[in-house]
């Protein structure tokens, strides 16, 4: 537990939350400043700042909770879909440095955008550059 982390403090029961699911490894609760009714956060109980910091077992537990919650969240608020995302790192807009998945219920005509809208303008990449990026990623996996 990180004493300075608000999500660790929620996990520890020191701060209140509207919890919708809890198991040994994960907690899910309503976002305090929701983008839509039913906006839910899924966190690992252990403190990890980024997605890539989680061990595989913890990451699998987070995804399992996410998988089990998307349907109930959407049904509870009669949503027609949802945007499921992590703000991973400050550059991506992460404000709370304890990794968490957002489930944001979506409705036709809600005025929101798709995930394609979150980055800046699309880069123009030549075939050679794309090949190099593919190689750089695959060599590191
Ligand atoms: P992010 O930018 O991905 O780090 O988003 C952090 C999210 O946590 C925001 O949507 C906040 O509204 C939400 N949040 C911050 N504090 C709390 C809290 N005490 N309980 C529930 N949600 C919170
Ligand atoms: Zn934490």
Verbal overview:
The protein is of the alpha+beta class and 141 residues long. The protein has one domain: 2-Layer Sandwich (HIT family, subunit A), CATH 3.30.428.10. It is built from three helices and five strands; from the N terminus they run H-E-E-E-H-E-E-H. The protein has a five-stranded antiparallel β-sheet, covered by helices on one side. A hairpin with a 3-residue loop joins strand 1 and strand 2. It is globular. The two termini are 29 Å apart. The mean pLDDT is 97.
Please give the structural blueprint.
Elements: H1 6-11, E1 19-22, E2 26-30, E3 40-44, H2 56-76, E4 81-85, E5 101-106, H3 127-140
Antiparallel strand pairs: 1-2, 2-3, 3-5, 4-5
The protein binds adenosine monophosphate (AMP) and zinc ion (ZN).
Considering the chains and any ligands shown, give keywords for the structure.
single chain; 141 residues; alpha+beta; HIT family, subunit A; five-stranded antiparallel sheet; 3 helices; globular; binds adenosine monophosphate
């Amino acid at each position: 537990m990180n004493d300075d982390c608000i999500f660790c403090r929620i996990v520890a029961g020191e701060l209140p939350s509207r919890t919708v699911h809890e198991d040994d490894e994960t907690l899910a609760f309503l976002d305090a400043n929701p983008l839509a009714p039913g906006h839910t956060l899924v966190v690992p109980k252990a403190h990890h700042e980024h997605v890539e910091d989680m061990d595989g077992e913890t990451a699998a537990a987070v995804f399992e909770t996410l998988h089990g919650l998307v349907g109930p969240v959407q049904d509870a608020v009669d949503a027609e879909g949802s945007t499921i995302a992590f703000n991973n790192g400050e550059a991506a807009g992460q404000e709370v440095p304890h990794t968490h998945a957002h489930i944001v219920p979506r409705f036709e005509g809600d005025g929101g955008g798709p995930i394609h809208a979150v980055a800046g303008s699309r880069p123009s990449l030549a075939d050679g550059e794309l090949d190099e990026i593919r190689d750089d990623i695959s060599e590191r996996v």
